[in-house]
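> @MW can you paste both from yesterday?
MW: sure, first one:
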Amino acid sequence: MTSQLVELAGTIREQVRRGLPAAQTAELVEDALRPFLTAPDLLSPEQRVGDPDSYRQHVLHVEPDGSFSIVALVWLPGQRTPVHDHVSWCVAGVHEGVEHEQRYVLRDDRLVPAEQTTNHPGEVCGFAPPGDIHLVRNAGSAKAISIHVYGADIAVLGSSVRRCYELTA
């Protein structure tokens, strides 16, 4: 880990150990992540590599007790997630490029589009289940990199995704 990532993990650890409800923890982690997003030496060159077939996940840190994980997602132009929700609270911040997020609400077993956000370097968003259904995509013509913090052990789970949803007409 870079020295910036070590410091970031320590800052997040302080907030997570407060033991607050998930939504409050996500808000605190948003504030903890924000100052690190513009650090040019946050990631190593290997942690900035994408994959032409799909967005790529680099696990940067998993807290030994499994209480949180820090992940870099590298998105090439046009790459996107499926519509999904999460197993835990989640905070994401853009390190490089532009990401677009479309949130949804579930009404009568149907997904209804809710707010849309376009995030640029240094911008963060966070949420906690329920209310965390969304799709994220690279909204630009260049590579995008975002830093995600999940309140779960991603090394064990492999992903923070709880469920994927199908969009219906």
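MW: second:
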Amino acid sequence: MVGKPSRAARSRARRSIGLLGIGALLPLVLSGCSLEEAFHLGWPRTQPTDQSEMMMDLWIGAVIAALAVGAIVWGLTFWCVVRYKKKDDSLPVQTKYNLPAEISFTGIPFVMIAVLFFYTVVVQDEVNRMEENPDTTITVTAFKWNWEFGYDREDAAGEQITTTGNSNYIPIVVVPNDSRVEFFQTSPDVIHSFWVPDLLFKRDVIPGEGQENAWQADFHTEGTFVGRCAELCGAYHSMMNFEMRVVSPDEFEAYLDNRAEGMSSPEALEAIGHEPYAVTTVPFDTRPDSGQPSGDEGN
């Protein structure tokens, strides 16, 4: 007959449970995340495109499935530890050729993989889908070490309206909300990568004739989002930032009208009631004997 656990054994059990709880909370506490951020599992809280929302849903679904599998596996493991704890020297019942268990262990993982594969293909196809007539097209030119954004409009001189960044100016690409936007990418020198973290998407910009590539996104949320180069492209790769400003369709048209009349990008943004310069990132000062650049340039 097995007696009750001793007081020392109960104390050790409570201490173990307490340590396990502390260990489970440590990642959240040390990361400095709020509870809301924790439930986003490290992903941005705002997904400004239909495609980014689909990718977020796929990720959350996959994580929930993984947590469910983990809970079942750990639960069965601890149940076996408790249920089949050695009580004496006699051998336990030996079981083999358990066909239902073997079918379950093979079939259930296969079904899970098939479901995840199906939804992954669905989301991937939507992210890569191209429509023949997007609402607007923006040309993205990545160069060492900055960005130029061109719009499908011309100014009074008949030249394409563009915004070009430099060492003192973070370029802002203005995008219309409630629109399908095509980004046509090109590079004159090395491989770069167009990355807006909140879009949950990035695409390499590959140099060379015939290497241009394009992708499209459906925007549904106005806002300001930081952009980066996600491909190591040289000495000043870390300084190759930009900002994406998603505005209403009317504001977008007004912005292009202002640019066509000769305004610079900061002037045109200010005229439609937006911050004239980037607010999500600032130029890097590479001159040790001077102050932070004021960001008073830009076209």
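> thanks! DSSP finds six helices and ten strands in the chain.
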